[in-house]
Design a protein that fits this description.
The structure holds two protein chains of two kinds. By secondary structure, chain A is of the alpha+beta class. In chain A, 45% of the residues lie in helices and 22% in strands. In chain A, strands 7-6-1-2-3-4-8 form a seven-stranded antiparallel beta sheet, with helices on one face. In chain A, helix 6 packs across helix 7. Chain A is globular, with a radius of gyration of 26 Å. Chain B is of the alpha/beta class. In chain B, a hairpin with a 2-residue loop joins strand 8 and strand 9. In chain B, 49% of the residues are buried. In chain B, strands 12, 14, 15, 16, 17, 19 and 20 form a seven-stranded mixed beta sheet that branches. In chain B, strands 1, 2, 6, 7, 8 and 9 form a six-stranded mixed beta sheet that branches. Chain B has a three-stranded antiparallel beta sheet with strand order 11-13-18, with no helix packed on it. Chain B starts with a helix and ends with a strand. Chain B contains five helices and 20 strands. The longest helix of chain B has 17 residues. Classes of the chains: A alpha+beta, B alpha/beta. At the A-B interface, helix 5 and strand 5 of A face helix 3 and strand 8 of B. Strand 5 of chain A pairs antiparallel with strand 8 of chain B.
Chain lengths: 214, 448
Amino acid sequence: MRIYSKGKIDLTKQSAYLYQFFTTCYALFLVFFSMQSFAVQEKPDPKTLVVHYTEMPSLIAGVVGVPSLRIYSNGYVQIFYPDFMRQAGHYEVTLNQTEMVQLHDLLTDEQILAFDEGDIRNQMAVTRQSRVNTLGSLSNTSDVSDITLDIYPGQFRLAKPEPLSQDKSVQITWSGLKQDAQSYPEIVVLQSLRQIQQSLSAIMVHPNIQKVDQ
Amino acid sequence: MWYGLILIGLLISQSAESGVFEFAGDEHGADVIAHPTGYFANGQTLVVTVGIAPSSLHAEEMVVPVQNVINVWNQLKPTVNNVKHNQISSKEFDFESVALHELGHCIGLAHPNLATESGLVGDDKDFTKSTRGANNRFDLDEGVDGVIGSGDDLRGDDVNLHWFAKAINNPFVLPNVIDKTTYSRDIDDLPFGDIYVANGERHVSDLFGVSNTESVMQQGIFAGETRRTLTADDVATMRLGMSGLDMIAGTEDDYDLTLRYVGFTETADIVFDFDDEASFAACQIRGVFLRQDKNHVTINRAQVSFSTDFAWHFNNEITALPEVTDTTVSIKVNGSSENTTLTQGDNLSLMVELSPGTNEGKQVDYWVWVDTPVGTFWLNNQLQFVRSNLPIRAFGGPLLDLPSFQVFDSPVANLPSGSYKAFFAVDNNLDNIIDATFQDQVDFSIIQ
């Protein structure tokens, strides 16, 4: 008690600075760790990526940034809109378990994982020819968008009893998905792919997204 | 004489290059030509209405640029140096430039380059439009000049879809005569030394000494860039289509195109709408094969969709239109427009003059006739006056600038005495039916 009292009484100007220094260090330590956890959110382990989605309008020239979406196994989502879009910037959001399960079910659909572009294009060609022959009509949409979907089904970590999908990754690219899905309702896998696109697009405008300064 | 007119046209012209039509390809045939709404192989002026969806976002902001792009397509004027980088923010896309491109699709034009529909990415998309050929893959080698889309590209067995002038492989100049006599899709018709068809891409324009020029129909526009006027490539493609089913300019199945702005409506032939049906911007078209010829398709529905997700720049200034001048014609007797009396010792010379004004290049009928004491004589396409009770057309073809052209020169002694009325007329269309839209008359008498 005395010592303490003495110590308090005997504090020199120098020791006061020392006290201030340690206090500051402690504060910085707290800030550092809070930033550290934030940084973990910002830069999750790329190995935990479950899906990477981009959609680029074909009429736009040059590689000046592509609207993109990355979703990681813990539900963390990174969204990017290039400068020329109204929502330009980086965003983040974290999906809940239910949303992740829904996403898993869509992305690990058997037909999606076995996606065969050539086969689908053949089916489309047959349908188009049939329409020309029967209806005499043709159709076309200019300047559609090109999507790229990289799926890593093995990275899902869900509290689900069913086994995880295989570890291989699947890349799907498609030009004009929206139009093709409308034009060929009988091609089931196109409808599934379109459903995935719609779900991912919805995540890109998720009500909880937060803008992140870069 | 009228061969002279044609010759004038040819002299004025330089060989040029055209582009690609919607629906042309493996599926429907490489020779498919797409025509705007309303074309059914009878010579006429097609009027295609263009409107703005009343409930569309940016509806009011679209009014000026949509009218501008209509004017540009109606005028069909080729330009160079049409790529500008100083008119809008680098973070915006120019609505007017994109609308000009999409409207081109809506009236039948496709991308001159392979574009994204090829499945290719990056610079490879700039190679000239083709099918994959027998080996079922695109053969892409930019050749010695290192410029993709130029005349020395090595394209293996890729089947060219790009219509080009036979005499010279240059997409940046425009001839007067544009039809299958001067154009081809067959690379065997390329000029000596060229290997493949050059397209209207901006780097190709450097090779031809017209930098910063790019076909409006070329797929690919940068943020901060404007491209608000057509190039020769765009104009030539359109006019090739306008040569009709037979693809011969000056025949009865030719047509003119007039795009007409009709304001806020959902019922125009082409409607602009920020309906988010497109990821950025697109024209959705439907068409039918013409009964007369399965290589020709008429578009029967078109819709231009834009996305609201992008930062758009809306031009709010009406494009400066060229001075509007009417077509004027005149006919003179011995250099005079006044009533003239000639005697047996005189010479009779009939001269016609034509100033096409803003209608220059339009396909029309020309008529020259003289009412004489012994009946009406019509100038035929052999440059001879022929007596006929029915009109005989002198020439069908483009409206040309004719400062002075002699159609008759003979001693009066060969002609009967009496009153004469000489007429020169041109129509505003090409159908071999006299309309005499623009007409002049001069009277003269021959006395003993």
